[in-house]
UniProtKB/TrEMBL annotation:
This is OLFL1 protein. Residues 1-21 form the signal peptide. InterPro entries: Olfac-like_dom, Olfactomedin-like_domain. It comes from the Eukaryota. Residues 139-395 form the Olfactomedin-like domain. PROSITE patterns: OLF (PS51132). Disulfide bonds join 140-322. The keyword Disulfide bond applies. One of its GO terms (biological process) is signal transduction. Keywords: Disulfide bond, Secreted, Signal. GO terms for cellular component: extracellular space.
Length: 396
């Protein structure tokens, strides 16, 4: 019985001792963990210090190198400065020598040189005029004396448009281009087909990949030349048979104002005469006067330009005939059309004249007036009518 009581008294004591031992073990583990963490931090701090020392050494080495380079640059700068000063001194000496030689030269020699240059310049100008006459094949020996009669061939289309023939020897086809903005040409076999009542049904429609603007287009040597719609001064060369664009060019100075005040839809008016392809337009720099430009149709390049005294004010159309510009004027309300300014690019004085030639038997304006050098006729478009004017000429 006594032994049983002792047993019950020893159990709590043993439990207390075991609990204390367990706590001691946990504390020991915590101390080991803390010690390891401190060791790790100390190693990292040591590595950081070592890196900083390496960075400091590297920076010091780089600083020494930079200072050495800068010192070298300063010495080079001084050397360059000395060389420049030496060169300037030599230039001053040379300039004094040149001034001296210039002062002792015979002045008559300079006069002779200037006279030689003047003679050479005059010879060049004379040669340029000869080349220009050869270029234009100055074989035109007639001038326009009057507009004898008219024939209204057809009335089709709106207020603006143009119609024409290719002035080549074997061309009989008629081309109709209706409207100031469009992209379809109507091609007719001949003028008789064009005059028939159902002529539009017999026409061959030729679509253009790029639409035209204005009414100043021409057909020459199988190509349609026209001002491209939406462009300032781009001229398109279109192959009618192949239905493709063959070339294009920009006409300097053109496209900013209308070529004719009474035909504002046309900024560039192309023309054909005995000497080939021309372009007519007005420029603000000329006070609105008309500018003539000769174009090489094969190269699509400008050959020469002339500023004329012919004003675009109250002008409705113009055409080239035998190297000569003829400007057609009218009243804004639409009266009798008349030619009041003529300018021959190869004239003796290049002076304009006012022949006062009236278009016969007709009141109203023209959208286009184009000259056909083969037939010596004007193909005009007036208020929707297609008109032919026959011309009377005389010897120059």
């Amino acid at each position: 019985m006594v032994a049983l009581k002792l047993h019950f008294l020893l159990i709590p004591s043993l439990m207390s001792i075991m609990g204390a031992a367990e706590y001691m073990m946990q504390d020991a583990a915590l101390l080991r963990y803390i010690d390891q963490r401190f060791l790790s931090l100390e190693k990292r701090l040591e590595k950081c210090n070592q890196d900083v020392l390496e960075y400091v050494d590297e920076f010091r080495e780089f600083s020494r190198m930079v200072l050495s380079r800068l010192t070298g640059l300063n010495s080079d700068k001084g050397e360059v400065k000395r060389e420049v000063e030496n060169l300037l001194t030599r230039i001053e000496h040379a300039q004094r020598d040149i001034d001296y030689f210039g002062s002792v030269m015979d002045s008559n020699a300079c006069v002779e040189v200037h006279e030689d240059l003047l003679k050479e310049q005059l010879l060049e100008e004379a040669e340029a005029k000869k080349r220009l006459k050869v270029m234009l094949n100055a074989s035109c020996d007639h001038v326009l004396e009057g507009i004898r009669s008219l024939k209204v061939v057809k009335k089709t289309g709106g207020k603006h448009g143009s119609w024409m023939k290719d002035p080549g020897k074997k061309h009989t086809k008629i081309y109709l281009l209706s409207g100031s903005v469009n992209n379809v040409i109507l091609e007719f076999a001949n003028i008789m087909t064009f005059m028939e009542n159902n002529q539009t049904l017999k026409a061959r429609r030729v679509p253009l990949p790029l639409p035209w603007e204005g009414t100043g287009h021409v057909i020459y040597q199988g190509f349609l030349f026209y001002h491209r719609h939406g462009s300032l001064n781009e001229i398109i060369k279109f192959n009618i048979q192949r239905r493709s664009v063959a070339d294009q060019m920009l006409l300097p100075g053109a496209g900013r104002i209308p070529a004719y005040q009474l035909s504002p839809q046309t900024k560039i008016d192309l023309a054909v005469d005995e000497q080939g392809l021309w372009a007519l337009h007005a420029e603000p720099e000329t006070g609105g006067n008309i500018v003539i430009t000769k174009i090489n149709p094969a190269a699509m390049a400008v050959e020469h330009s002339w500023d004329t005294p012919c004003s675009s004010k109250d002008a409705e159309a113009a055409f080239m005939a035998c190297n000569t510009l003829h400007v057609v004027y009218n009243s804004p309300s639409g009266g009798s059309s008349r030619i009041q300014c003529v300018y021959d690019v190869l004239g003796a004085l290049n002076a304009h004249i006012n022949p006062g030639l009236h278009f016969p038997k007709r009141q109203g304006g023209h959208s286009t007036v184009h000259y056909n050098p083969k037939e010596k006729q004007l193909f005009a478009w007036g208020d929707g009518s297609q008109i032919i004017y026959k011309l009377h000429t005389k010897q120059k």
